[in-house]
Amino acid sequence: MTTTDETQAARPAGRPRSARAEKAIIDATLDLVGEATSLSDLSIEAIAARAGVGKTTIYRRWSNKEDLLVDAMATLKAPLPRLGGRPFRGDLVACVEVFLREACDARSRCVMNIAMNEVERHPRLVARIRQAAIEPRRAALTSLLQRGIASGDLRADLDVPVALAALIGTAVWYTRGLQPGEDMVTEDVAEQIADHLLAGMAPR
After folding, report:
1. For residues 193 and 202, what is the distance between their CA atoms, to the nearest angstrom?
2. Residue 103: what pLDDT?
3. Alpha-carbon distance 99 to 102, whole Å?
4. 174-198: b (≥16 Cβ within 10 Å) or e
């Protein structure tokens, strides 16, 4: 057997998945969510046309529209930095910076709001989106705050759900005050916000 034969024999059956096609499909899905009046308006046909791929390309990766929507919405939430291994304040600053940059992305914010407002029409789908896109981050942040309580950086009677709302809400509210095209998201801003939050959450 020649080297070429060995290579061909080792290659798994089926077409290799195209990362470029997958990204085009995800982007097309998010664009169409932003343009739709309801998630019900979306179709695999429309997504395929917008992405410039065939329906079979989509169905090789996702068995149905709901699975595709869940995966697409999950991409709107950037992964948090690795938490731990540094002081609590450093982790808090790093998280705030992620929230600030995310809140500046009008497209992502709009698309996520549209999906979350569909809870009455599509409760199962919205629940799956929450589970894939929101809950992992909520769990990581809850763990971070609990670590801050254990280390004494945060007060022992801290209401963790309220602290989570303050942490994320402050970043979102700050970016709402920016002018279109204005980029004021810096590490210094993240540090200022984190320090103000810490002032309210630190032991009395």
Report:
1. 14
2. 81
3. 5
4. bbeeeeeeeeebeeebbbebbeebb
Name the domain boundary from 33, 66, 99: 66
**Does any domain span residue 72?**
no
What's the rounded Cα separation, in Å, for the pair 110 and 42?
A: 16
How many folded domains does the chain comprise? 2
Spans of the chain below 50 pLDDT: 1-16
Tell me how crowded residue 103 is: count the other CB atoms within 10 A of its CB: 21
Backbone conformation region of residue 132, classed left if phi is above 0, alpha if psi is from -120 to 50, else beta: alpha
Closest CA to 142 of 124, 156, 161: 161
If phi > 0 it is left, if psi is from -120 to 50 it is alpha, else beta; for residue 21 that is alpha
CATH of the domain at 56: 1.10.10.60
Domain encompassing residue 31: 16-66
Output the pTM of the full model. Answer: 0.77
Q: Can you give 36-98 as a three-state secondary structure string?
A: CCCHHHCCHHHHHHHHCCCHHHHHHHCCCHHHHHHHHHHCCCCCCCCCCCCCHHHHHHHHHHH
Are 50 and 31 in contact, with CB atoms under 8 Å apart? yes
Strand, helix or coil for residue 16: coil
